[in-house]
Amino acid sequence: MASDTRQKLVETAIDLIWQSSFGAVSVDDICKNAGVKKGSFYHFFPSKTALALAALDAHFDEHRPALDAAFSPSRPPLERFVALAALTLTKQEKAFEKYGLVCGCPFASLGCEIAGQQEMIRARTDEIYETYGRYCENALIEAQAQGAIPKDVDTGRLAEEIGTYFIGQMTMARIQNDLTNMKETLVDGLFRIIGTEVPKVK
Fold first, then answer.
1. Distance, CA of 9 to CA of 34 (rounded, Å)
2. How many domains are contained in the chain?
């Protein structure tokens, strides 16, 4: 079916670009690995950039239910960040098991590589990170209201710093192709940025 072919192209693009890079993966590579003819590719996508945008959206949509669960209102607000760290590590571990590589953050990798050349990619990665930022800021606002962090903390700025920290951790893990440091330091470093002790998760 046509929808199955399109989905296969998107899934293959996610796999190949995440493992390698946008520039290193050709339309021919995507078609070959997806088992799809090149004509079918251009039936669904006018360009590799259009496919990359669809892959970004699909990857985030797939990840979002787990993100919603991590930031569930049923969790105390600071515990949501513990859950986010666990989710991030689990995702990186699963990618390593699948690909044999530390893949880092797909949004950061693609954004850093071509955002200066492809405005649509830059805009979409910005939107995705803004969404992550809203999850973090809403949790920080609740924590502030409960007295868990000081009233004078700029929650918007702190949410941005948390996002930058996660991207940095994943980028270094990818450069080193090793998750050891990330496993050992992610949570403690996160709560040093937030300015509180790591909460005891029940």
1. 6
2. 1
Separation between Cα atoms, residue 154 and residue 135, nearest integer Å: 15
Domain range enclosing 85: 56-194
Distance from the Cα of residue 127 to its chain's centroid: 12
Provide φ and ψ at 152, rounded to 5°.
-85, 5
pLDDT digits (tens, 9 = 90+) for 51-103: 999 999 999 999 999 999 999 999 999 999 999 999 999 999 999 999 899 99
Whole-model pTM: value is 0.90
Say whether pLDDT at 2 is over 80.
no
Could you tell me if residue 12 is inside a domain?
A: no
Whether 28 is in a domain gets the answer no
Within a domain: 21: no
* Cα gap 23→115, rounded to integer Å: 12
93 in any annotated domain: yes
| Distance between CA atoms of residues 165 and 171, nearest Å | 10
